[in-house]
Amino acid sequence: MSFDVIVIGAGAAGLVAAAEAAGRGRRTLLLEKNRRAGVKILMSGGTRCNLTQATDKWGIIRAYGEQGNFLHSALAALSPADLVKLVEDEGVATKVEETGKIFPVSNRATDILDALLRRLAHSGAELALAEPVLRIERIEDAFRVVTGSRELTAPRVIVTVGGQSYPGSGTSGDGYAWAAALGHTIVPPRPALVPLTTSATWVRELSGITIPDVGLRLILSNEPQAEALDSRRGSLLFTHFGLSGPVVLDISRTVTTLSDPAAADVICDFLPNTSSQQLDEELKRAFAADGKRPVAAIVSERLPRRLVDTILALAKAPAALRGAECSKAVRAALVGALKNTAIPITGTRGFGKAEVTAGGVALNEIDSRSMQSKLVPGLYFAGEILDLDGPIGGYNFQAAFSTGVLAGRSV
User: How many CB atoms lie within 10 A of CB 65?
Assistant: First the structure.
C-alpha cells in the first residue's frame, strides 16, 4: 500500500504532524502500536495534561538552554498561544495556573486528546491503531515501512515515536534503532524529569508530606564548598523511596548527567524566602517572646510538624526544647538544618517513572527549519525522539507539538 506520508507514533507530535500533512492534501497514514492514540497525553500532568506554559516562544527557547536555538522555526510554526488556540478551536477551554502551567479548564487530559483526534479526523488522515512498526527501509527514492501485518511505502516518513520514558505507554525506544540503521547518531538516552532515590531513612519516614516552596542545590558530596551543579526552586514531595515533586524532577535532569549519581547530594532550603541571618533573628525574637512554648510548635507555624520534628533531630536539639532554653549554638544548628540540609542521592527511579527522555537523535543531523534529516532525504523526526528535553511545566509538550506541526507542514 502506498501513501504520500507515513507518520509513525500517534502521540503529541504525531497527531499534529499527521493532521498538518493531510490538511495540505497529502495522503497520510498515522501508525500507532497501542490500541489507542495519545496514551502518554492521558497520563500527563496527573491525568490533567499540562499542555504548555504561559509564555512566548522566547520563554520556551530560554528554558531549553543550549538546545533552545533548535526550536526557533518550530515555535514560529506553533507558538504557545497558537497551541492554546488550536485546542480551543476544537472546543476545549484552557486556564493558566499560578505556576504558569496551562491546563484544560475541565482538568481532563481526555479532552485534549479528543480535540487532537477530532482535528486529525477533519484533516482526512488515516489512523491505524494496534499496528506496531517492525522496521523502516530506504528503497530508491522512497521508504518501505514494515508492520506486523503489512508492508507500506511512502516517499516521506515522519518518526514521532517518543523516547524511552514511561515504557508502559508504548515509548520503548523503538525509533532509536530505526534512526541508527538509517545512519543517524543517537545521543545516549537517559531519564529526565524523574524522581530521586535516597538512603536517608528520615526522608522516607516523611513520605506523603509536600512542601510548596523549597530551594534545592545539587552538589558533589566530596566537594561541599564547590559551586552547585544546579539549583532549582519549587514544590517538593517526600516519598517512600526518596524525593519527588516539580523541583526534584527539574533538578533530576542534571543528576542523570552524572556518571555516578550516588556521588551527589541535594541541599534543601526549606525556607527559601528568608536568609539565614534573617531566620536567626526571627527565631531569636520568637523564642524570647514566648519562652515557655516548645521550639517545635513555634517553627511549625512555617512548616509541617513532622518535618519540624525531623529538623530538630538533625540539629541535635531536644524534642521538648522550649524557646527560653534554646542557646545561640542550638539556634544556629536549627537554622543550618532549615536552610542547608543535605540529602544523599542514590540514583533515580529510571525510565519507568521518568516523564521525559533526554538524549535521542542528534540535533546537528536534523534541519531545524523543516525537521528533515540532513542525512536521509524524505525522513523527518519530531517530538521526544529528538535530543531535546526541557524543564517541567509544559515545555516538553510544547516542543513536541511545535516540531510535529513543522514536520507536517514540511512534507
Answer: 12
User: What string of DSSP letters covers 27-89?
Assistant: -EEEE-SSSSS-HHHHHHHHHT---EESS-HHHHHHHTGGGGGGGHHHHHHS-HHHHHHHHHT
**Structure confidence by residue, pLDDT tens digits, 179-206:** 999 999 999 999 999 999 999 999 999 9
Q: Which residues does residue 366 pair with via DSSP β-bridges, in sequence order?
A: 373
Q: Class of 5-190+351-410 per CATH?
A: alpha beta
Residues in the chain: 411
Task: Count other Cβ atoms within 10 Å, centred on residue 293.
Answer: 14
The helix/strand/coil state of 273 is coil
At which residue does the C-alpha cell 516539580 appear?
246
Extents of the domains making up the chain: 5-190+351-410, 195-349
Mean pLDDT of 364-387: 98
CA atoms within 13 A on the CB side of 299: 31
CB 50 within 8 A of CB 393: yes
C-alpha cell at 254: 542534571
Q: Which residues of 148-179 are buried (b: 16+ CB within 10 A; e: fewer)?
A: eeeebbbbbbbbbbbbbbbeebbbbbbbbebb
Residue 23 has which C-alpha cell?
490538511
- Residues 264 and 252: their CA atoms lie apart, in Å, by 11
- The pTM of the whole model exceeds 0.85: yes
The residues, ordered by sequence, that sit 6+ positions from 314 with a Cβ below 8 Å of its Cβ are: 202, 337, 341
Alpha-carbon gap, residue 411 to 404, rounded angstroms: 11
Tell which residue, 170, 196, 203, has the closest CA to residue 354. Answer: 196
Asked if residue 76 has pLDDT above 90, the reply is: yes
